[in-house]
Amino acid sequence: MTLLLGGLALAASAMAAGLPPERQAGGVSYVSGGVSADEAEAFKAMRNNYPLAIELVQQVGGRNMFTADAKVRVMDSAGHVVLDARADGPFMLVRLPPGRYRVEATFKGMTTESPATVNIGGHAQATLNFPGSPD
């Protein structure tokens, strides 16, 4: 009961901080977005409150630019998919139990991946970089 109330309190503080509402995919809660400058700042401010923060960027003209609409999958150490969702912006904040994960994202037919280890009470960051668009 205490864990549930703590999760609800964190979700409420995330919404108060300007984040979109949390969603569920399987047994995992996540929030995605960050397209506007204000929302991007809210995601950056709240990322330490989530066990896993995912950032999606694409190389454009030699610079890293935020991207949106990537398909994101998170697999546990046994290869089971624990999150399969579309990113609404360049950020995803994910509530996961401690463990080793592989984060994979596909954008415009390109797939990239990154390992992530979530420690007890810790926080992991996965930045997924896509090469520039061929078009």
UniProtKB/TrEMBL annotation:
| Record keywords | Carboxypeptidase, Hydrolase, Protease, Signal
Sample GO molecular function, one term: carbohydrate binding
Is Protease set as a keyword in this record?
yes
Give the range the annotation lists for the signal sequence.
Answer: 1-16
Q: In the record, what lineage is assigned to the organism producing the protein?
A: Bacteria, Pseudomonadati, Pseudomonadota, Betaproteobacteria, Burkholderiales
The protein in question is named Carboxypeptidase regulatory-like domain-containing protein
Q: From which source organism is this entry?
A: Piscinibacter terrae
